[in-house]
Amino acid sequence: MDRTYKPPKDFCPLCPTRPGAFPTEVPAEDYEIVVFQNKFPSLQPEPPVPDVVGTDISPVDVAKGECEVVLYSPRHDGTLADESVEHIRNLIQVWKDRYRELGSREEIQYVLIFENKGEAVGVTLHHPHGQIYAFPFVPPVQEKELSAIRAHGEKTGRCLICDIVREEEADGSRIVAETDSFLAVIPFYARYPYEVHVFAKEHKNSLIELDEILEWDLARMLKLVMVKYDNLFGFSLPYMMTMHQAPTGGKYRGEGHLRIEFYPLHRSANRLKYLAGCESGAGTFINDSAPEAKALELREAGPKTVEEIDD
Amino acid sequence: MELSKAKVPLDMEKEKITKDDGRYLIYYRFGSKGAGNIGTEQPDEGNCPPGEDCRGKTTSNCHGQSQRKGCGNCQS
Questions:
Q1: A170: Cβ–Cβ under 8 A, 6 or more apart, which residues?
Q2: Which value does ipTM take for this structure?
Q3: Nearest residue, CB atoms, B3 vs list A39, A213, A248
């Protein structure tokens, strides 16, 4: 596929279309936040018929769904961490709207909101943006986690993630930051050294259940975590960010517990964590750092609390 | 919650267009850049202390129940 690969700033397809300049994806001179259908979608509403015939062992199906691009800002340079808390709260409203609209489609079972940031994770367009994949199935990572949540619920009558939050709060050693409604921790089961999960403290299935107070609180927490990353490393830290919410279809519809997970690949400023033999060949992550130690580093990195961040 | 009936925030305007190649694109606009009511949520009656900026702050200063940017006497 002829995908755009690291274009120079003047030819960024995600910038606004300037007068007299080449037409970008956005036919306007300015914008706040924009969402559009991906030009190179893995899933689409009217997918082509597969060009191979499946078998019992290797079944094929049409790639029905939706792939969207979310432009965070008209400014080419910068990252989500540079945006104001108010702008991040606006983005949360956009995410909420996309989750609602895409999840309302009959064929959609899971709406995955995510961001790949930085060349270390393979980004080819530097303009600040995220993506949304609306799947016609519940992806395997979510399937496994939802199965565990349900099993725990059947055994204890409680939400597994709520119990994890209570356990992390009680222990405290893996907490990175805390607000009234959200808890950021490097969980006991972290795969990457600086993997931070932002949990809703109270049980919330999805963004839909956040009122304005919680939207603002989440915006401050997300900014805090991202700024801490950048300050600790001394540069804009690449990461993958995924939002875990309740499926909108399938057997786990409506189940789950809202959280945002960050997976930075860096082990240190100049070393990356690779998915090598054990991770790729055995599905077993080797993390040679203690989450408690990495959480302490991030906890000590400024700003220490949401009160210290600039709006 | 029934997703199709979920509320869209009041202070957000949404304009959906179709691009030349048939793909859709949505502009989201907020607050001072031309927000309109596209949802079903009803506004709170602003009751903030004059000059108080209630954004993201405690509820005690604003409405008693929820915060809304740009309402009543709040700064936007």
A1: none
A2: 0.94
A3: A248
Catalytic residue among A127, A129, A244, A257: A129
- Locus of tokens 């994949």: A133
Q: For chain A, give the mean pLDDT.
A: 95
> Per-domain residue ranges for chain B?
9-37, 46-76
Chain A nearest-CA distance from B68, in A, is 7
Q: Is A266 labeled as catalytic in the residue annotation?
A: no
CB A197 within 8 A of CB A241: no
Which fold is adopted by the domain A9-47+61-302? HIT family, subunit A (3.30.428)
Q: Is the pTM of this model over 0.90?
A: no
**A71/A75 Cα distance (integer angstroms):** 10
Contact present, A6 and A97 (Cβ < 8 Å): no
For position A124, what pLDDT does the model report? 87
Domain ranges of chain A: 9-47+61-302
State how far residue B50 is from chain A, nearest Cα, in angstroms: 20
- Alpha helices by DSSP H, listed for A82-235, are 85-103, 140-156, 160-171, 212-233
